[in-house]
Amino acid sequence: MEASIFMTDEPKWVLVNIIKVFSRSGLLVVYEHRIRMFKFWMDDQVKIGMCLRDEFYIQSDRFLITEKQLAFDLACKLLQDATQVVVTISRSNYMVWRKLSPT
């Protein structure tokens, strides 16, 4: 599954429509200021995590704002393995997150 997202001069309108389209497939797209990021220890490394809607996610990758297609390609690839994937958008980058599984 590949995603093709087209941004316009009205990113808020586009974002609302993206969320409607992708939420059925397990992919959410949100503005970065809507999440709470934190650092945690996992697999002998410091990882970056975030909380959204009382769910915890781990950062899979970060992309420059010009690398939008790469970010959504990774998100779609992760959807095949993860139950929930989130893409956050800021002025400078896209971040792809996958839901943390309880251990």
Compute the separation of the termini in Å.
28 Å
Helix-strand topology string: HEEEEHEE
Q: Report the CATH architecture.
A: 2-Layer Sandwich
Helix coverage percent of residues?
10-25%
| Secondary-structure content class | alpha+beta
Largest sheet, strands/sense/barrel? 6 strands, mixed
- C-alpha-based Rg, rounded: 13 Å
Percent of sequence in beta strands: 35-45%
CATH topology: Phosphorylase Kinase, domain 1
Low-confidence sequence ranges:
1-21
Count of discrete structural domains: 1
Shape: globular
Give the number of helices.
Answer: 2
What's the β-strand tally? 6
| CATH class wording | Alpha Beta
Mean pLDDT: 81
Order of strands in the sheet with most strands = 1-5-6-4-3-2
What's this model, at a glance?
The chain has 103 residues and is α+β, with helices and mostly antiparallel strands.
Describe this structure in words.
The protein is α+β, with helices and mostly antiparallel strands. The chain has one domain: Phosphorylase Kinase, domain 1 (2-Layer Sandwich). It is built from two helices and six strands; from the N terminus they run αββββαββ. A six-stranded mixed beta sheet has the order 1-5-6-4-3-2. The protein is globular, with a radius of gyration of 13 Å. It starts with 10 loop residues before the first helix and ends with a strand. The N terminus is likely disordered.
